[in-house]
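REQUEST ID: PR-0412
SUBMITTED BY: lab tech R.K.
PRIORITY: routine
TASK: structure prediction, single protein chain
INPUT:
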Amino acid sequence: MRLNKYIAHTGHCTRREASRLLARGEIKVNGEIVKEESYRVMEDDQITHLDKPLKAKVEHRYILINKPKHFSTDIDDKDSKYIMGLIKKEDPSGLIAVDKMGPTSIGLLLLTTDAGLVQKLNQKDRKIRRVYLAQLDREIDPKEIKKLLKDRKTLKIEAASHVDGYDKNHVGLEMTIGSEDILKGVFHRMGFEVKRLDRSYYAGLTKKDLKRGWSRHLKEMEERMMRHFI
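STATUS: complete
OUTPUT:
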């Protein structure tokens, strides 16, 4: 990368301003003043402005998947396909699933190289709005659904109800605290088995226009929204 482009890439200034810094002899490479814009920056070069180190910003990747059944975020799950198999056109290096999703969970899943974002989103007390449609092994009545709203120790469900157009063994719910495993555990203690858990909304992201099994990079506005959580 050319030196003036590298300086601009750090966010220190624009490329035009970088050219002025170079012309004034304010930029050093490995302790030596360099004025040539065309200087090619090597991986181990140390770039400074008035002896202040300049480092290029890391460009993270954010990939949204509408996950189908039979895929898992656990590479050691021998009974399922590994989630990275859905993004064959992408380099999987450094990509992390924001949260765990097993083979019976479908819908929105975010993959990213931004480990800081993953850590923040998975804090136990971090409120992240998620919307699910849970398919159970048998019908559930409204009184039993209300019990979901009372469990505040391990998860926080803001709303839960039957959904128009679905059988009574389906529950739509909005959750802000807790994991899918905890949610399935709560249903299990109530005597239900979750046959399928479909996430349609996650932290401001939706699966609109994203078919099952498809993936896409987040838009710039969506990336900014994700960085808001850090």
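NOTES: The first helix runs from residue 3 to 9.
REVIEWED BY: pending
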